[in-house]
Amino acid sequence: MGMGAYSRNPHVETYRCDDTSRQLLDRLLSNGFGFGCRDLFSERVLHSWGYADTVLTGCPAWYDLQFVESTDFVTPPPSTPQHIVVSDPADIYNKEYARHLIVLLRNMFPQARISFVFHAGWEADEFTNDLKARLCCELRDWLRDQGIQTQNAAYSTEGFSIYDTCDVHIGFRVHAHLYALSQRRPSILIEEDGRGFGANEALGIPHVPIWPETLFHDYVQKVLKRFCGRPPVLSTHQIESFLGAIQTRIAEELDSGYASAQRAFEAMAATYLSMREHIGRLEACSGARAS
Q1: Widest CA span in the chain
Q2: How many angstroms separate the CA atoms of 141 and 123, rounded?
Q3: DSSP per residue over 109-160, as a string?
Q4: Same-domain pairing of 219 and 139
Q5: Which pLDDT tens digit goes with each residue over 252-273?
Q6: Residue 123 belongs to what domain range?
Q7: Closest CA to 188 of 40, 57, 74, 84
Q8: Which of 35, 189, 214, 259 is the most buried (most CB within 10 A)?
Q9: Residues 21, 48: one domain?
Q10: What is the dihedral of CA 140, 142, 147, 149, to 10 degrees?
Q11: Are 92 and 135 in contact (CB under 8 A)?
């Protein structure tokens, strides 16, 4: 059984196990399956609920059988990136961080081509309400005014092919990050929530978080979004703190030859072995039950 926690922050205490969830977990445990966990955060949540039979199997999104046993780059990354692909915020209310990121990248790498991918597109649909679509369009139009190529990756997996052409991914989408790493390419993730935190923690990658610092700040932000309907205005401190953190991460990666990405490749190869063992355990339990 694969388990993954989702939260706006990495605080385990925000998770509560209701009776229905506990019944399901107890039944799975009684079947002898145990719990394969996407990340260490998910393990801590289960442990806090009293479920200790866990194993870190990693996220399926970071496995590509073509590269899973490789611990090196598919191609040596250049000392200065020539093509940078930026993924959009999963929470469009963080669009001002994206704008500041683009300005920073332009200043750091004036000769680089920068592409920007909207994973859920910019049109209103069953997953994106009118307000969020309008905010996406505002960001898209601003990017185009800056001469940035924009790509709508919604409704098809074909949009992910752009990550196969980049020197480095720098952005907000967890699955863009994991996909780039699964293809053995450099990636830097800006963490919007506990999923990004958990993935980077499991892969040994330094954090660049932008979630609210405390549960109180998280609550205030939710209230502002609900009643104001617009992204919160970032303070000078928030902007400077974010830009300082991401600039430091980029410089560290360039100076080290993307050392954290190579550590991630090694972690992926290791958890792949754990995942295979866990699947074997599930198959054995299923076979025993069937007989």
Answers
A1: 65
A2: 13
A3: -TTSEEEEEETT-SS--SSS-HHHHHHHHHHHHHHHHTT-EEEE-TT-GGGG
A4: yes
A5: 999 999 999 999 999 999 999 9
A6: 83-258
A7: 84
A8: 189
A9: yes
A10: -10
A11: yes
18 Ramachandran zone, left/alpha/beta (phi>0; psi -120 to 50) = beta
Can you name the residues that pair with 150 across neighbouring β-strands? Answer: 116
CB-based burial label for 238 (10 Å; 0-12, 13-18, 19+): middle
Q: What is the 8-class DSSP label of residue 57?
A: -
Concatenated DSSP letters of 2-45: EE----SSS-GGG----HHHHHHHHHHHHTT--EEESSHHHHHH
Q: How many CB atoms lie within 10 A of CB 16?
A: 7
> What are 148-170's pLDDT values in tens digits?
999 999 888 888 889 999 999 99
Do residues 35 and 53 make contact, with C-beta atoms less than 8 angstroms apart?
A: yes
Domain identity same for 151 and 273: no
Sign of the C-alpha dihedral computed for residues 125, 178, 258 and 42 taken in this order: positive
By CB atoms closer than 10 A (0-12, 13-18, 19+), residue 12 is middle
**Per the structure block, which two tokens stand in for 113?**
């081509």
Instruction: Name the one residue in this structure whose structure tokens are 């990136």.
Output: 81
pTM value?
0.87
C-alpha 274/C-alpha 125 separation (Å) is: 39
- Tell me: do 187 and 281 sit in the same domain: no
User: Is residue 240 predicted with pLDDT exceeding 50?
Assistant: yes
Residues 93 and 185 in one domain: yes
